[in-house]
């Protein structure tokens, strides 16, 4: 009995962790690499979820819908950065407080727009695999978790390869440290940051499609994700993209164990506890370079 | 004739004006020295050419292959793309990237990209230590090696003209000798066009065809190799502002 609970709690934790990694991935780019504290990232995830819902009503699979919507979301993210840069970076670097205020404002606007268009009702998608489970011995894995959990590593691996092996990817990784290094290399830092925001926005769309497969989504669902997404990025270490998956596994499993053996009500607090412990004990995170 | 022309360039920081009407010319294949003690505007001049400091007056014009490109006030990445590379003071490498990534990044510009492979091969041939340490993070290299990387990075942009800002700064004497020798041989064997800003007269004048002495943001004197006046003491005196009285126009400012 105990063993069965333990095995399933760990398995669920890993599945959740994989999904958390997908949710945090865009933040690993904008905050982890570019050091821009984009607290509006989760609201883009919710926006992505709504796109998946609308497409699903027309018979699309949510994940396919996300792939189809990649270009518009890329442009949306690029536009969002352009707006941020116009407001602040013209006068040098934005200070964190100003940036947070702007991102908070953007989140409110998007949430309000979603409420006005769709109401506050919870939205769901209808896919065949939701409601079924994979059983292996004692292990029971619902497809509504398993399918999203498989998408996340693919997305992370793709992004990692992009950052590692393309010119633009190398430039994105250089951007946070010394903008002048980019400029003397003949690269436009503004273009590169805008491109990075576009990519982050595409990951938000995919994460949104995943989120709505796991469970119902409403306009405010992003708020629950903010703390956890930052916890994942900081635990992984700033700039450590593949590290997000392990960090997210740790948080997912910890949450799952707490809800299995203590009390499910405490599980949302787990990410914050881990965040606090990371900041106190290992501020550079698991894989971040010490700065 | 292929050349870079700076005409009446003025620039500064906010209300503080630093450059007061600089006019210099650099022709293809030349190695030109920009001499001046600390704080006289060498870096400001190079940064104004690159577009990091916005000129308030004057022009930066590149005349190359029959084209005349006005670069005044253009953003740095465009200026690099036009063929002017900078090896900045303090090197400004991407510390978290590997040696090879720093080089590839500089080879990614629109014009440089098609030659990136060949340029990388040339850099590794010229600086074997960079090839050996290609997978190492730039931040973990010694000062001399970082300076080599900064020079190699400039070469990756397929430059027409390379501006080098105090390459000897903060290096051990042996590293200085090595860096200067490399610059000299690049100019000689590759027919590269180089502008080098230096405080240490001996090293810079020894390798250059022409030297401008910069004092308080103006060109105080110009020396050419072979000038009878161009003995080192004379240049030193000019740099320190003794012996030669300042021009009246400058005193008036
Ligand atoms: N970023 C800056 N902001 C304000 N003043 C500066 C800045 N950089 C240089 N200066 C000033 O401009 C003058 C010329 O400096 P610089 O061009 O760095 O000289 P050099 O390279 O010959 O040592 C100095 O008086 C210096 O204090
Ligand atoms: Mg200087």
What ligands does this structure carry?
adenosine-5'-diphosphate, magnesium ion
Rounded to the nearest angstrom, the radius of gyration of chain B is 18 Å
Number of H- or I-type helical stretches of chain B: 10
- Helical residues, percent of chain A: over 70%
Q: Which topology of chain A does CATH recognise?
A: ABC transporter involved in vitamin B12 uptake, BtuC
Number of helices of chain A: 12
Number of strands of chain A: 2
* Count of structural domains of chain A: 1
Task: Supply database-style keywords.
heterodimer; A: 291 residues; mainly alpha; ABC transporter involved in vitamin B12 uptake, BtuC; two-stranded antiparallel sheet; 12 helices; 73% helix; globular; B: 253 residues; alpha/beta; 6-stranded mixed β-sheet; 4-stranded antiparallel β-sheet; 10 helices; 10 strands; 37% helix; disordered C terminus; binds adenosine-5'-diphosphate; binds magnesium ion
Explained architecture:
- The complex is a heterodimer of chains A (291) and B (253).
- Chain A is mainly alpha-helical.
- Chain A has one domain (2-281): ABC transporter involved in vitamin B12 uptake, BtuC, CATH 1.10.3470.
- Chain A contains twelve helices and two strands, in the order H-H-H-H-H-E-E-H-H-H-H-H-H-H.
- Chain A has a two-stranded antiparallel sheet with strand order 1-2.
- In chain A, strand 1 and strand 2 (139-142) form a beta hairpin.
- In chain A, helix 1 (2-33) runs antiparallel to helix 11 (243-261) and helix 4 packs across helix 9 (189-214).
- Chain A starts with a helix and ends in a 10-residue tail after the last helix.
- Chain B is an alpha/beta fold and 253 residues long.
- Mean pLDDT of chain B is 87; it is low at 243-253.
- In chain B, 37% of the residues lie in helices and 28% in strands.
- The chains are: A mainly alpha (291), B alpha/beta (253).
- The complex binds adenosine-5'-diphosphate and magnesium ion.
- Adenosine-5'-diphosphate is lined by residues 13, 16, 18, 36, 38-44 of chain B.
């Amino acid at each position: 009995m105990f063993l069965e609970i333990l095995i399933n709690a760990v398995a669920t934790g890993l599945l959740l962790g994989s999904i958390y990694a997908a949710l945090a991935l865009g933040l690993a780019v904008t905050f982890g690499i570019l050091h821009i504290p984009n607290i509006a990232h989760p609201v883009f995830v919710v926006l992505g979820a709504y796109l998946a819902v609308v497409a699903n009503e027309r018979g699309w699979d949510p994940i396919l819908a996300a792939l189809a919507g990649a270009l518009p979301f890329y442009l949306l993210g690029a536009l969002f950065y352009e707006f941020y840069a116009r407001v602040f970076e013209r006068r040098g670097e934005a200070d964190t407080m100003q940036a947070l205020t702007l991102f908070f404002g953007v989140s409110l606007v998007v949430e309000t727009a979603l409420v006005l268009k769709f109401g506050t009702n919870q939205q769901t998608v209808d896919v065949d695999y939701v409601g079924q489970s994979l059983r292996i011995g004692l292990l029971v894995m619902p497809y509504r978790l398993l399918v999203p959990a498989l998408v996340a590593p693919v997305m992370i691996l793709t992004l990692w390869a992009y950052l590692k092996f393309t010119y633009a990817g190398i430039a994105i990784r250089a951007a946070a440290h010394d903008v002048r290094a980019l400029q003397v290399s003949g690269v436009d830092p503004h273009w590169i940051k805008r491109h990075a925001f576009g990519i982050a926005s595409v990951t938000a769309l995919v994460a949104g499609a995943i989120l709505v497969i796991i469970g119902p989504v409403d306009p405010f669902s992003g708020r629950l994700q903010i703390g956890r997404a930052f916890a994942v990025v900081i635990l992984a270490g700033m700039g450590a993209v593949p590290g997000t998956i392990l960090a997210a596994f740790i948080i997912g499993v910890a949450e799952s164990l707490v809800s299995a053996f203590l009390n499910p009500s405490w599980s949302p607090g787990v990410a914050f506890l881990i965040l606090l412990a990371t900041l106190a004990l290992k501020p550079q995170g698991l894989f971040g370079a010490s700065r | 004739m292929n050349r870079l022309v700076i005409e009446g360039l003025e620039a500064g920081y906010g209300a503080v004006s630093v450059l007061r009407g600089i006019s210099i010319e650099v022709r293809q294949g030349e190695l030109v020295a920009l001499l001046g003690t600390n704080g006289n505007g060498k870096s400001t001049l190079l940064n104004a050419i690159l577009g990091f400091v916005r000129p308030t007056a004057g022009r930066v014009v590149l005349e190359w292959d029959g084209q005349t490109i006005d670069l005044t006030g253009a953003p740095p990445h465009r200026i690099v793309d036009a063929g002017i590379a900078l090896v900045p003071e303090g090197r400004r490498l991407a510390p978290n990237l590997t040696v090879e990534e720093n080089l590839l990044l500089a080879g990614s510009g629109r014009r440089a990209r098609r030659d990136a492979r060949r340029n990388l091969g040339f850099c590794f041939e010229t600086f074997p230590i960079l090839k050996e340490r290609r997978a190492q993070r730039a931040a973990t290299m010694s000062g001399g090696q970082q300076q080599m990387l900064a020079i190699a990075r400039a070469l990756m942009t397929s430059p027409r003209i390379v501006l080098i800002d105090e390459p000897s700064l903060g290096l051990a004497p042996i590293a200085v000798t090595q860096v200067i020798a490399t610059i000299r041989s690049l100019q000689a064997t590759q027919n590269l066009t180089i502008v080098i800003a230096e405080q240490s007269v001996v090293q810079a004048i020894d390798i250059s065809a022409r030297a401008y002495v910069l004092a308080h943001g103006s060109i105080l004197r110009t020396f050419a190799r072979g000038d009878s006046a161009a003995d080192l003491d004379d240049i030193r005196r000019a740099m320190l502002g003794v012996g030669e009285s300042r021009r009246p126009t400058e005193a008036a400012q």
